[in-house]
Write a structure and sequence with these properties.
Elements: E1 7-10, H1 16-27, E2 30-35, E3 38-43, H2 61-64, H3 66-73, E4 75-79, H4 92-100, E5 104-107, E6 111-115, E7 123-125, H5 131-141, E8 147-151, H6 157-168, E9 172-176, E10 180-184, E11 193-195, H7 250-259
Parallel strand pairs: 1-11, 7-8
Antiparallel strand pairs: 1-3, 2-3, 4-6, 5-6, 8-10, 9-10
């Protein structure tokens, strides 16, 4: 939704949530095509600001669309989201984060309406590391004006994967070992492509990490992080799978360990 051109996720799982999300994107004006395990999303004319109420309660993706829609249209409506059988999962962390970024939010009987002529950077502290709220901040702050500092961010694999994809699109994101994410907003993002390793049920390797932004280097460039260096070799335009060969020296072992989610009871107010 944020890129000016097509974006492709390779090795996407064949699950119902992917079909529902594709239908939502098509309903607001995006073109979605699937070929095997590849899912490509592309702008297709005018984007509608309202996600239809027909998608009420099906999954939690609509709340993540608020930020991108605000960047596209200046206003957005998303229906009430669904949840999982793990207890009550309100969206107040998402709403608070969007308000901090400058959005006007109204919660109604059928959904949430948001308006913003321009989102701006902010300091945001999550009450606990919510995966969904962290993703909302990433999706909203990458094109906001100025810098956003998010504290107590979630660091689950899906968050890291999202941030890596956004980096490939041209976003400026850096993750610190103390659960702090710093996002420098950019005026536009390009389309991108990424291999999704988790589609087979495997979790990303602990050595996969967010690369610090280096001005002037686009996707596929080497982005060294320390003496041993981080290497992220991206496949070319021939459609080959991405190859991720990372080397992390002993000094980054502490970074990985500090960023792993703690095995503590999770409050009922989830993402």
């Amino acid at each position: 939704m944020l890129g000016d051109g097509p974006s492709t996720i390779r090795n996407a799982p064949e699950v119902g949530d992917v079909d529902i999300t594709a239908a939502m994107l098509e309903a607001i004006g995006y073109q979605v095509s699937r070929s095997g395990g590849d899912v490509t999303v592309a702008p297709n004319g005018t984007v509608q600001s309202r996600v239809p109420e027909a998608f009420t309660g099906l999954n939690r993706i609509p709340i993540l669309m608020l930020g991108p829609l605000l960047h596209r249209t200046g206003e957005a409506f998303v229906p009430l989201v669904g949840g999982d059988p793990i207890g009550r999962r309100p969206v107040d962390f998402h709403v608070s984060a969007l308000r901090a970024l400058g959005a006007e939010i109204e919660a109604g009987r059928t959904g949430i309406t948001a308006r913003a002529s321009r989102l701006h950077g902010a300091r945001i502290d999550l009450p606990y590391p919510s995966v969904g709220a962290t993703e909302t901040v990433l999706l909203s702050a990458v094109r906001a004006e100025g810098k956003t500092a998010l504290r107590n961010a979630a660091t689950e694999p899906e968050v890291v994967e999202l941030a890596l994809f956004l980096q490939r699109m041209g976003a400026h994101i850096e993750l610190s070992p103390d659960r702090r994410i710093v996002i420098e907003g950019v005026p536009r993002l390009r389309g991108a492509s990424r291999w999704l390793a988790a589609a087979t049920g495997s979790r990303p390797s602990p050595t996969w990490w967010l690369l610090p932004h280096h001005p002037g280097r686009g996707p596929g460039a080497r982005l060294p992080a320390g003496p041993a260096g981080h290497r992220d070799h991206h496949a070319g335009q021939d459609g080959r799978a991405d190859r991720h060969h990372r080397r992390v020296d002993h000094r980054f072992g502490a970074v990985r360990a500090a960023a792993q989610p703690r095995c503590t009871p999770t409050p009922t107010r989830a993402s």
